[in-house]
Amino acid sequence: MKKLKRSSRLVEMTQYLLFRPHTLIPLTTFAEAYSSAKSSISEDLAIIKEAFENEGLGDLVTLAGAAGGVKFIPRIPKQASLQIIRNICQQLEQRERVLPGGYLYMTDILGQPFIVNEIGKMFATYFAGRDIDVVMTVETKGIPLAYATASYLNLPVVIVRRDNKVTEGSAVSINYVSGSSKRIQTMSLARRALKEESKVLIIDDFMRAGGTVHGMMNLLQEFRATVKGVGVFVESGEVNEEEHLVEEYVSLAKLTGVDEKTKQITVSPGNFFDDEWGVDEG
């Protein structure tokens, strides 16, 4: 227990909350840590709540009762998200990103912590109100996005492998059709990696027809798991609706055209921005 000035206490409490999103923290945790009355702690939390809301950091929800406390829910305003995505779209439209075969290079963007964290915060904002146990992705480029999303939702991450690793023990493997190459490929998940009947959020970096995501959905059936949502960083707009293997998903950006000859690339905000959304803790 320690006695601090209110200014110092506010800094410590803010940091404590930021590093424990979606976690119910009893008021007694702070009262005992700072040898303060609950009334004083409540006043501190009111100041932090106002600051969070004014700065667009998220919501501080108070739950009354003996089992109550406070819970920090990270959130990013829609307008701020749109500004970030528009900037990312401009970066993705750089001519030198066109690769042979009409592919788009974006590994460098996924290597920037600030961008990855903001992407994770957007997905966490959208899916915050859903009952989710784990965030899933397939190796490799979707991994940083999955971890960023999971950090804001305070959830574990499960990684689907392209092949079975001996170090992960027995695994479930399935074949799936890649949406880009139309080839039969294999993905696997260690039996110990996911509990049966888990509720899963799928996050991926790119989706064309949705073959990889659809493969993960089929793999999850082997674990009797439920897909609670699908979020993709960039989707291809060059695929007809009837070719989509995934019906419900959220995309942050949409690649609507790549001309390999002229090096012309067109990227726009995804369907993430089509509808109203917000945080709902139910």
TrEMBL record:
The keyword Membrane does not apply. Pfam families: Pribosyltran, PuR_N. The keyword Plastid does not apply. Keywords: DNA-binding, Transcription, Transcription regulation. Residues 110-238 form the Phosphoribosyltransferase domain. Residues 5-74 form the Bacterial purine repressor N-terminal domain. It comes from the Bacteria. Homodimer. Belongs to the purine/pyrimidine phosphoribosyltransferase family. PurR subfamily. This is Pur operon repressor. It comes from Paenibacillus gansuensis.
